[in-house]
């Protein structure tokens, strides 16, 4: 399958399947291109696809009638599916918006579950994925409650420096829970 090296690398290193299972899985993914500002996921949607970000930048956020709060950014090849909604057959509460042109590798949920059952690896894939997501979510919540905006910005510098080049600053400010002006002051203090 052309242009699936990043997807292949994820499965071969993070979640090895047998060779036949991998080939069948890779050929089942379809490529879709989204444009800047296009919504991929909306609050209330059923999560019926496994989506892998092959290229581009995506912001994930919650929204009310009066504000949006960024909760994550995706800038490197990784799965962007709301796995909680995917696994529990519930509707998502998140939004995902393209911040650039985006290429996704997409697999229908039913096809994916059938492949996992066929190769008897479904439970281990879901368990591994959930373990990682829960660890990330717990750390993120802890950081947001215990760290200042300056400390959170330093974490971005250390752990996600590409965000500062790929994500608009007003979105970074929302993620930090500050205004764009406050973010400018933080950047001046830290640099």
UniProtKB/TrEMBL annotation:
It comes from the Bacteria. Gene3D superfamilies: Jelly Rolls. CDD domains: CAP_ED. Residues 17-116 form the Cyclic nucleotide-binding domain. InterPro entries: cNMP-bd_dom (IPR000595), cNMP-bd_dom_sf (IPR018490), RmlC-like_jellyroll (IPR014710). This is CRP-like cAMP-binding protein. It comes from Sediminitomix flava.
């Amino acid at each position: 399958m052309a242009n699936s090296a990043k997807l292949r690398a994820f499965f071969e290193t993070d979640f090895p399947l047998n060779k036949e299972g991998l080939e069948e899985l890779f050929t089942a993914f379809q490529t879709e291109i989204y444009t800047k500002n296009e919504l991929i996921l909306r609050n209330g949607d059923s999560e019926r696809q496994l989506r892998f970000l092959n290229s581009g930048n995506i912001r994930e956020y919650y929204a009310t009638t009066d504000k949006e709060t960024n909760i994550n950014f995706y800038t490197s090849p990784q799965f962007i599916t709301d796995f909680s909604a995917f696994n529990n057959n519930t509707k998502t509460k998140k939004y995902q918006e393209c911040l650039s042109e985006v290429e996704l590798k997409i697999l229908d949920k039913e096809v994916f579950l059938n492949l996992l059952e066929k190769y008897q690896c479904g439970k281990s894939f879901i368990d591994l994925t959930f373990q990682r997501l829960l660890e990330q979510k717990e750390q993120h919540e802890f950081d947001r409650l215990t760290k200042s905006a300056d400390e959170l910005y330093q974490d971005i510098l250390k752990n996600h420096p590409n965000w500062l080049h790929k994500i608009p600053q007003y979105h970074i400010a929302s993620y930090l829970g500050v205004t764009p002006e406050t973010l400018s002051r933080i950047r001046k203090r830290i640099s």
